[in-house]
Amino acid sequence: MKIAVRTGTCAAATILLLSACASGQAEPTAAGTETDSGTSAYPVTVASCGVDYTYDAPPERVLLGAPGVIATLDALGVADSAIGYTNGSYAFDGLDRFSGLTSNTDDYAPSREFLIGASPDLFLSNDQGQLGGQGSASSDDLTTAGGNLYVLGEYCQNTPAPTTIDAVYTDVDNLGTIYGVPDKAAEVVTSLRDRVTAARAKNTDSAPLSAAVVQSFDGKLYALSGSYYSAVVDALGMTNEFADIDGNFAEITPEAALSAAPDVVLVQYAGSEADAAAAVTDISALLANSPAVRNSRVYPQNEADFQAAGVRIVDAIENTADNVFGK
User: Fold this and answer.
1) At 278, is the pLDDT very low, low, confident or very high (cuts 50, 70, 90)?
2) What is the CA radius of gyration of the chain?
3) Which of 42, 89, 150, 289 sits 20 to 30 Å CA-CA off 308?
């Protein structure tokens, strides 16, 4: 396991950089050259993190902020536009099905030399901080390379990220515009909404459950909130006990977690099923007197889904619903 910085609204904070696991995906699909209707809709302008970017054609050389981002492009039928990804340690089994996709760097934030050399026409990021420019590439370097930026989930610097699943639907719609496949994007959003509705229906508790999303590393306990962490909890009709923390995550004491007394504890983990079980065991020991532990309601969440963003967040919602409410 490694420590990395995911900047966003908490540039000085640290949190875990976790290894990805496989998620069920269809065979890779190809990018089109026309809109769904067969007519040219370009140029189009799509904003990201407060900046307008213009596209004269569908992107053809896309660099991903994490390998799991490919799932969203695949859902839209444009997976073969991706040429590579940063965060190579997030690679998962089956990624080699995307033959044109290579691991370009294990670094969270690509170097200036690497970014300019890759010459992407789009950097599809999960965090604007990946182009922070502090010893790594900046957004200006991307512009120099001739590329646009799109940040999934509006995970922008100095701006709180959205905390509902609507952020995923917006991303799919925006990517549909960027790639000239708005009809396909609408189909994907409809399917995602149906899946979220079905997952929410598994929650038959008469009173809303309270949940805490936590992660433990190197003897420290973190509460995770904001962004997708709250979106998953909210989508399933639960309340986030740490929704009011400053930023998307913060170090807390075990006493604070015990005082919150959540009905459910969701534990972020990296890696295999064994790693998931170990994470649950560690948190259960740390919070042994909490209602969630006493009632055996401590469940794992795969951090790889959250780093991949996009359609993988709906995977996380479904997996969490199965764990908390039963399949």
Assistant:
1) very high
2) 19
3) 42
Residue range(s) defining the domain that contains residue 318: 204-325
- Residue 150 region, left (φ>0) first, then alpha (ψ -120 to 50), else beta? beta
DSSP 8-state assignment for residue 136: S
Task: Please tell me the distance from the alpha carbon of residue 82 to that of residue 270, in angstroms, as a whole number.
Answer: 25
Pair 119, 36 in one domain? yes
CB-CB contact of 216 with 112 (8 Å)? no
Q: Which of 164, 196, 228 is the last residue of a domain?
A: 196
Question: Do 25 and 156 lie in a common domain?
Answer: yes
Q: How many domains does the chain have?
A: 2
What gap in Å lies between CA 174 and CA 235, rounded to an integer? 21
- If asked whether residues 182 and 237 sit together in one domain, one would say no
pTM for this prediction: 0.87
Tell me which of 24-33, 169-178, 309-318 is least confident.
Answer: 24-33
Distance CA 293, CA 23 (A): 28
